[in-house]
Amino acid sequence: MNWEKKDIPPEQVKELAAKYGCDHLTASILLRRGLSSGEDIRYFLEEDPRYLRSPFELPGMEDAVERVLAAKEEEEKVLVFGDRDTDGITSTAMVVNFLTGLGMDVSWKLPSGDDRYGLSMEAIEEFAAAYGTLIITVDCGISNTAEIRRANELSVDVIITDHHNPQEEIPEALAIVNPKLPGSPFPYLSGCGVAYKLVSALRFALKSELYNQPMCLLNTRPVNDAWIIEIAKMRNLVVRQTLIETVVPGMVSISNTRLPAFLESQQILAWDAPQQKRTLAKIFGKGVEIGMLDVAPDIGKMIPSAKDISLLRIKELSRIARYSEKESGELEVFINLFTTFVQRRENHFTDEDAADLQFACLGTIADIMPLKDENRIIVRRGLQSLIEKPRPGLSELLFKLGMSGRRLNAQDVSWLLCPAINAAGRMGSPEKGAALFLEKDPSVRDRLAADLVSMNEDRKKMGEESWALVEPRARENLENFDSKLAFAFGEDLPRGVTGIMANRLVGQFKVPALVVSFGKDGLATGSLRSPGNYDLRFLLEPCEDLFLDWGGHDYAAGFSMETGEAMANWNSFLERLKNIALNMEFGDSKNESAITVDAELPLNYLNADILKTVDRFEPYGEENRPLNFLAKGLRVSDLHFMGKPEAKHVKLTLDAGKYKWPAKYWNAADKVKREFDTGDTVDLIFSVSRNFFKGIETPEMTVTDLKRSETKN
Question: Whole-model pTM above 0.90?
Answer without folding.
Answer: yes
